[in-house]
Amino acid sequence: MNVGIEALNVYCGLAQIPVRTLFEGRGLDQERMGNLMMDNRSVGLPFEDPVTNAVNAAKPVVDRLTEEQKNRIEIVITSTESGLDYSKSVASYVHEHLGLSRNCRVVEVKQACYAATAAVQLAVGYVASGVSPGAKALVIATDVALVDERAAYAEPAMGAGAAAVLVSDDPRVLAVDLGAFGNHSYETMDSARPSPSFDIADSDRSLFAYLDCLTNCFESYRAKVEDVDFATTFDYLAMHTPFAGMVKAAHRKLMREFAGSASAEADFTRRVLPSLTYPSRVGNLCSGSVYLALCSLIDNGALDGGARVGLYSYGSGCSSEFFSGLVDRGSADELAAMRIGEHLAGRCELTFEEYTRVLPGNLTCLVPEQDRQVDVAAYDDIVGRAHVERDLLVNTGTKDYRRTYEWLSR
Questions:
Q1: Are residues 166 and 182 in the same domain?
Q2: Is the per-residue pLDDT at 120 higher than 70?
Q3: Nearest CA to 160 among 378, 36, 39, 14?
Q4: By three-state DSSP, how is residue 345 classified?
Q5: pLDDT band at residue 305, thresholds of 50, 70 and 90?
Q6: Whole-angstrom Cα distance, residue 53 to residue 87?
Q7: Looking at the predicted structure, is the pLDDT value of residue 325 above 90?
Q8: Looking at the domain assignment, is residue 335 inside a domain?
Q9: What is the pTM of this model?
Q10: Is 227 left (phi over 0), alpha (psi -120 to 50) or beta?
Q11: What is the C-alpha separation between 49 and 365, in angstroms, rounded?
Q12: Res. 210: pLDDT tops 90
């Protein structure tokens, strides 16, 4: 049975700042910039939040469906570290502003940067079960970044935005290898968000947990799937990308453990580098990160024929999964309609002064306030310098704790 990703899109905001500009503005050691392998990072504006990011990522996917197809979306799941309420899900707002059927399961899930993959696999299982033939599930990974100068070298690596994944029995983008997956999970405090205004992280612990989980969940994958050879089974690899340099280190570790004497550098260039084009221009998209990498691979890889992709998803805390699927030329044609490369190129480039001006609004966008107004017009100059060809949802504040939204017409 063919089940997997029917459609896929990412939205990474209206603004970005070059990593070099951020390093210079913060006085960071320039010699460490090469380790990140980052060019830019997406920057959320004060009227962008988890809901707007999710809706703006998913709307192009939903708009391409007929009314009948749209009504077959039976599950809407948002995965996020940036929850807006202890009870009400981000998905409830998203469901409303996408105009989806009221005959939907609507839910939010959380497990740091892994949660979207858990939701995608649950959706794959639901569709594959056949309990509701022709059903679709919409999974949206959406987050904002809560970093400033206190985050030091993590600040240039954090992105913002969302990835929308439509799962169905018509997998035009990625046909998932059913039953081919490996998991590894345990409790560790490598990062956390103890309040809606800041993150904490133990960088060394996170690095080791990421690499430990990668080895062990790949071993778990090999235990389920016969005749797996890391060097030859997968034509491409797409991994959770905290920063591109981390993926290069992870690939080198797997090559050393599972591929013997093969050249890690040449293999990285051929099988991994296409997946890092977009992440190096966005930063860490949290649970949407591996799907941003998949988009990058499909848009930038050579997909003349069919290709098997090995995917690695990791979330702090921690949980991880290695799984796989098939892509082909049709995948590239389907994803091309989303024009993701154009979207990323069209973001407004911020100066360091503009970046520090919008940062306070970013850091407080999750803090609950009974009544708040966001002056969207105050950022007209930035919006005007971004290349936008469609209406976008923006947050205008809160009224009696209910978040309010409007469509910004272009």
A1: no
A2: yes
A3: 14
A4: helix
A5: confident
A6: 20
A7: yes
A8: no
A9: 0.97
A10: left
A11: 7
A12: yes
Could you list the beta-strand ranges (E) of 171-270: 174-185, 191-195, 198-201, 236-239
Which pLDDT belongs to residue 54?
98
User: pLDDT band at 261, cuts 50/70/90?
Assistant: low
**Same domain as 203, residue 150:** no
Residues 162 and 181 occupy one common structural domain? no
Alpha-carbon distance values, 208 to 8, 55, 183, 289, 310 (Å): 30, 34, 16, 19, 21
Q: What is the CATH number of the domain that holds 344?
A: 3.40.47.10
Instruction: Read off the tokens for 403.
Output: 């978040």
Amino acid at 211: L
In 19-110, beta strands by DSSP E: 40-43, 73-79, 105-109
Q: Which helix (H) or strand (E) holds 322?
A: strand 319-327
Residues 312-333 as b/e (b if ≥16 CB within 10 A, e otherwise) read bbbbbbbbbbbbbbbbbeebbe
Which pLDDT does position 198 carry in this prediction?
Answer: 87
First to last CA, the chain: 42
Radius of gyration of the chain from its Cα atoms, rounded to whole angstroms: 20
pLDDT band per the 50, 70, 90 thresholds, residue 79: very high
The values of phi and psi at residue 395, to 5°, are -90, 130
* Count of C-beta atoms within a 10 Å radius of residue 64: 16
Residue among 178, 271, 274 at smallest CA distance from 232? 271
User: What is d(CA 80, CA 50) in angstroms, rounded to the nearest whole number?
Assistant: 8
Within 8 A by CB and 6+ apart from 240, the residues are 113, 114, 210, 289, 290, 293, 312, 313, 314, 315
Domain that holds residue 46: 4-173+340-408
Per the structure block, which two tokens stand in for 169? 């029995």
Residue 268 is encoded by which pair of tokens?
């990285």
Chain segment 348-379, per-residue pLDDT in tens: 999 999 999 999 998 999 999 999 999 999 99
Number of domains in the chain: 2
260 phi and psi, to 5 degrees? 60, -120
> Would you please indicate which residues are annotated as catalytic (active-site) residues?
81, 113, 240
> CB–CB of 41/282 below 8 Å?
yes
pLDDT tens digits, residue range 158-176?
999 999 999 999 999 999 9
Which of 278, 297, 329 terminates a domain? The answer is: 329
Residue 380's Cβ-count burial label (10 Å; 0-12, 13-18, 19+) is exposed
Q: Quote the pLDDT of residue 274.
A: 98
